[in-house]
Amino acid sequence: MSVARVTEIIASSSQSFEDAVEKGMQRAAKTLHNVRSGWVEGQKVLCDDNGNIKEFRVTLKVTFVLKD
């Protein structure tokens, strides 16, 4: 029987939401072993004073399987 855990991370990118997701999942896999899935719980952008987007941010829920 496997036991999984879910952890929340926030990742950002100056390019796009998709890039932020990819960076977040890649970074999670460096620290967490047996990463199996992830889902985007939220998205937001940071803007400058003129309304131009400076940064895309995603809140991710990452699922990984615990070792026996």
Short description:
With 68 residues, this protein is an alpha+beta fold.
Topology:
Blueprint: E1 4-13, H1 17-31, E2 35-47, E3 53-65
Antiparallel strand pairs: 1-3, 2-3
List keywords for this structure.
single chain, 68 residues, alpha+beta, 3-stranded antiparallel beta sheet, 22% helix
How is this structure best described in words?
Helices cover 22% and strands 53% of the residues. By secondary structure, it is of the alpha+beta class. It has a 3-stranded antiparallel beta sheet with strand order 1-3-2, covered by helices on one side. Strand 2 and strand 3 (53-65) form a beta hairpin. The model has no long low-confidence stretch (mean pLDDT 96).
Our measurement of the CA-to-CA distance between the termini, rounded to an integer number of angstroms, reads 9 Å
Q: How confident overall, as mean pLDDT?
A: 96
Order of helices and strands: EHEE
Helix/strand class: alpha+beta
Shape: elongated
Helix proportion: 10-25%
Low-confidence stretches: none
Q: Looking across the biggest beta sheet, what order are the strands in?
A: 1-3-2
Q: How many distinct helices?
A: 1
The radius of gyration computed from the alpha-carbon positions, rounded to a whole number of angstroms, is 14 Å
Number of DSSP E strands: 3
How would a crystallographer describe the biggest sheet?
A: 3 strands, antiparallel
Beta-strand fraction estimate: over 45%
